[in-house]
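Q: Here's a chain of 241 amino acids. Please give me its 3D structure as C-alpha cells.
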Amino acid sequence: MGKADFHMHTSLNDGTATVRETLDYVRDRTDLDVIAITDHDRLTGSYEAMEMANEYKFAVLPGSELTTLHGHLLALYIEKPVPMWRPLEWTIGQIHEQGGLAIAVHPFSMLTRSIGFRSFDGIMKHASPEIYFDAVETFNPSVAGRTCAAKIKRLNDGRFHLPEVGCSDSHHLEGIGTGYTTFPGTSAAQLKTAIAGSQTQAHGTYWDFVTHRRIAQLKFRRIGRMWMRHGLSAVRAVAGD
C-alpha cells in the first residue's frame, strides 16, 4: 500500500517552508510515496514542485486549495489556475473540466473557511453529472479538522458514502505526513484510480498543544518578517487561511 499526503502549504502562500525545504523534508523524514503542494488559490508552488520532482523518488502531483464562495475545496490533478470566490458548483465544474479531482477538506469546521452542511448536501443532490465531490477529507490533524472529524465521519458512513482521504494540511515541516491516505500502488496515477474506486483509507495523528504553539510562533515570525519587507498586503496573504 502506498502513502500520500496531498494537502500542504509552503512559504509561497501561508506556510513557513519553501518548496525545496518541503520536498527535502518529505525525502528525509517521511515514507510518503505521493505528495501535492496545495497553496491557496495559486499553482505557483505546485509548478515549482513539479519541476523538481525528478530529483526525488516520491511522486508529485499538481494541486491547489481553492477558496469558493462556500468554503475551501481541494483541487488535484489540475494544471490551470481556477479563479477564487466563485460558487462551489462552478468551481467543481472547472476542476472536472480539467480532468481533476474535487475534494471537500475539513468540511463543517467553524474554525476556518469550510463547506457547510447545506452546501455539501446540495452538491450531493446536484442534478448535473459533472457536479460532485470525488472524495472527502475525514482526517485532518489540525484543530480545524479535529473539531469536525466525528461529524463528517458519521455522515459519510451513514449518508454520503464518499471515498475517504486523510491529509496533514501542514503549514510547517513537522506537520507533513501527520495525516495521510493509504492506497493500492505508489504512483500519482494509481492514487487517482484508487480515489475513483473508493480504495483509499484515511490515517493520522492529531497535533498536540506544543505543535500548535510552534505553528503559531512560526507563522507570527513570518508575518513580522513580511511586514518589515513588503507591508500590509503581503501580511494579509500570509495570515489568511
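Q: Can you summarize the key feature?
A: The chain has one domain: 2-211.
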